[in-house]
């Protein structure tokens, strides 16, 4: 079908057929990008460049330019390069003509070609730029602000393509013209109002840190336009509102109908985009402007009249936070009791959470989640209890209310957008659990039941796997709380290991591994500290649990609070009932003492008294509780400790022991 349409552009076809074909190519280029460009470049570009020369039918010619603009706007340099010279040559030839109708379209195509070809356009810069400067200055002189806007747009797009090294000789002239226009009173519908804002942003993107001299001129203008009001029109007689010229557009808000001044709102959008673009490029160089830019953009997270403004505001939040953090680190900001970065964190994070709770468009919700996650990583825990509760409600609502694939009224695009939001919600929750760890524990009771709902068999594999993944994150950060759910969790995890979906199976095994890694410690601790642990029917299990705890400490110490677990382990030594486990545990104790284990000995070696007492009890029991090798090593360690101790300290220590233990110890050391 596409091939037949492209062939219809030929000169021997009727002009109406050619116009229809060109319009269709334009739509394909816009809606089927980039696949259409990749597949049909060798047919489309020759056909369009030839149609550009159809001077007999100006409408065909204009439509060819329009189609070429859409096609080249979504091209890669490799697609354009074989045709670049021919296209640029034809465009320059057209710019030399005095056909005003074509000149605007020519500038649009040239800007798209330059930007898409990137640095490959550099070799044409010295040829193209003189034409563009003449057109710009002529349009300014003749007060043709439509053509002026097109020329400035083209110049700044060319600049972004070729880079700052190429444009140094031309920036001064264009900047002076921009400043001159900025000082003049441009009418509300003047196309240069928006173009002026875009030009500053692109110049900043191109120059980077060298843009600093122009910040005092450009940023106040961008801020003023971003804050612009009077874009809502509420007429006395709504029935007489004329929307035909596009300057006014109706908008339904709930049960209310209002009218928007489109040009004013377009200026607001352009200003917000410009501020975001400069913040992203200048980073900490934005310094003194960061706070005011943030104060301007944060409220726009909930700007219901325009989704593009919400999208830009959400994207800008992590950029501004990063700029503020870097400015703080480099000393570019004045510090008070609360640093500008900390204040920005306390403003941005709650605002993002609030925006997330209100956002209805999946695409923007995904951006908010992405920005929220990035901001959390930089800010640390800043959300209070109410904000945390609001965040979790929204996240769990996303995770538990997805559209089912089988719903016939849910189109593919919606499912794709929902999936993106779903994935972002999972990532954001994982980061949130890790960052907010110190204040998150009270909310686990609300989170775990929601996770359990995701484990049910009627859920799709993606949801079951996600529930397992979230549980893994919780178990890593809150092992004790997760282990309290073991009677539910382990049954499900073992059941999940039978799942036919390999991704579910993989995460289930990982979750069991975390239980083995973390949950086992708390299970052993529960056995060891059980009120009946030392009753005759339980002592064998008690000793086995203490020995097992020592083994886990030996092989997984780096993943634990070793000092805490060693203290528990030492408190329950010596083992006196399960003799096999006793010999293992006592040998391990001796080995740790041999290397002067800091965490076992404790601060200022305060656990030495307990260790020596344990040794005395083991020696008093004879060969039942330790091997000959272990006993021999213990005696050597005790002799060394006695020699290194102050005599009065050693005597005091010995006198504190029970008589039978003291006599046994003295007997062993004297022999």
């Amino acid at each position: 079908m596409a091939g037949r349409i492209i062939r219809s552009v030929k000169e021997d076809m009727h002009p109406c057929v050619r116009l229809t074909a060109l319009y269709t190519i334009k739509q394909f280029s816009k809606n089927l990008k980039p696949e259409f460009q990749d597949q049909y470049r060798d047919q489309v570009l020759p056909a369009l460049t030839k149609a550009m020369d159809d001077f007999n039918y100006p409408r065909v010619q204009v439509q060819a330019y329009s189609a070429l603009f859409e096609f080249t706007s979504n091209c890669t340099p490799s697609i354009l390069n074989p045709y670049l010279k021919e296209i640029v040559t034809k465009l320059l030839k057209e710019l030399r003509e005095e056909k005003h109708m074509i000149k605007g379209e020519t500038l649009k195509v040239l800007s798209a070609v330059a930007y898409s070809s990137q640095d490959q356009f550099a070799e044409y810069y010295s040829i193209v730029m003189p034409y563009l400067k003449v057109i710009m200055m002529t349009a300014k002189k003749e007060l043709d602000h439509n053509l002026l806007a097109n020329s400035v747009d083209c110049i700044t797009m060319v600049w972004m393509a070729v880079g700052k090294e190429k444009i140094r000789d031309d920036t001064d002239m264009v900047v002076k013209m921009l400043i001159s226009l900025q000082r003049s009173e441009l009418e509300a519908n003047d196309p240069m109002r928006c173009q002026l804002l875009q030009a500053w942003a692109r110049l900043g993107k191109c120059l980077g840190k060298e843009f600093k001299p122009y910040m005092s001129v450009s940023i106040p203008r961008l801020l003023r336009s971003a804050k612009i009001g009077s874009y809502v029109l509420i007429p006395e007689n709504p029935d007489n509102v004329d929307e035909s010229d596009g300057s006014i557009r109706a908008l339904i808000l709930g049960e209310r109908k209002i009218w928007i001044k489109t040009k004013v709102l377009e200026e607001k959008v352009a200003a917000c985009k410009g501020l975001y673009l400069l913040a992203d490029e200048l980073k900490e160089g934005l310094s003194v402007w960061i706070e005011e830019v943030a104060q301007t953009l944060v409220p726009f997270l909930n700007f219901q009249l325009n989704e593009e403004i919400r999208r830009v505001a959400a994207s800008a939040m992590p950029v501004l936070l990063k700029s503020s953090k870097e400015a703080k680190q480099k000393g570019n900001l004045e510090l008070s009791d609360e640093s500008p970065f900390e204040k920005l964190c306390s403003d941005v994070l709650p605002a993002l959470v609030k925006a997330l709770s209100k956002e209805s468009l999946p695409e923007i919700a995904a951006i908010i989640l992405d920005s929220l996650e990035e901001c959390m990583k930089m800010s640390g825990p800043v959300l209070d209890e109410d904000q945390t509760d609001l965040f979790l409600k929204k996240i769990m609502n996303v995770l538990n209310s997805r559209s089912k694939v089988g719903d016939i009224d849910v189109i593919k695009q919606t499912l794709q957008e929902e999936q993106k939001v779903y994935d972002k919600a999972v990532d954001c929750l994982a980061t949130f659990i890790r960052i907010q760890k110190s204040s998150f524990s009270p909310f686990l009771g609300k989170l775990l039941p929601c996770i359990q709902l995701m484990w049910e068999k009627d859920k799709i594999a993606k949801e079951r796997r996600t529930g397992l993944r979230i549980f893994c994150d919780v178990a890593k950060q809150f092992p004790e709380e997760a282990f309290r759910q073991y009677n539910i969790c382990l049954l499900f995890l073992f059941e999940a290991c039978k799942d036919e979906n390999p991704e579910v199976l993989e995460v289930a095994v990982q979750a069991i591994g975390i239980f083995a890694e973390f949950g086992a410690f708390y299970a052993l601790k529960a056995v060891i500290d059980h009120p009946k642990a030392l009753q005759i029917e339980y002592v064998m299990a008690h000793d086995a649990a203490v020995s097992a705890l020592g083994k886990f400490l030996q092989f997984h110490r780096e993943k634990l609070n070793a000092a805490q677990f060693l203290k528990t382990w030492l408190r329950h030594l010596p083992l006196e009932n399960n003799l096999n486990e006793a010999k293992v545990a006592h040998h391990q104790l001796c080995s740790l003492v041999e290397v002067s284990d800091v965490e076992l000995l404790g601060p200022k070696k305060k656990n030495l008294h307990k260790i020596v007492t344990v040794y005395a009890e083991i020696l008093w029991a004879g060969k039942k509780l330790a091997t000959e090798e272990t006993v021999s090593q213990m005696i050597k360690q005790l002799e060394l400790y006695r020699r290194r101790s102050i005599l009065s300290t050693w005597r005091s220590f010995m006198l504190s022991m029970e008589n039978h233990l003291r006599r046994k110890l003295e007997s062993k050391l004297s022999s």
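Confidence is low (pLDDT under 50) at residues 403-411. The longest strand covers residues 248-253.
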